[in-house]
Amino acid sequence: MRNAFWTILRVTIFVFFCNLSFLSYANSNADCTFNTDQTCTPSQLGVHNPQKAFGCKRAFLYQNQLYPLDSKHQNDAEKLRPIISSMPTAIEQLNSYQNNQLRVKNATYLGSIGIGLTLAGLLTQTILSNSTGDSIQKATLYGGLGLALGSTAYSIYIIKTNDSFLNRAVDNFNSNNQNNTIELRIKTEAWF
Question: How many CB atoms lie within 10 A of CB 189?
Answer without folding.
Answer: 10
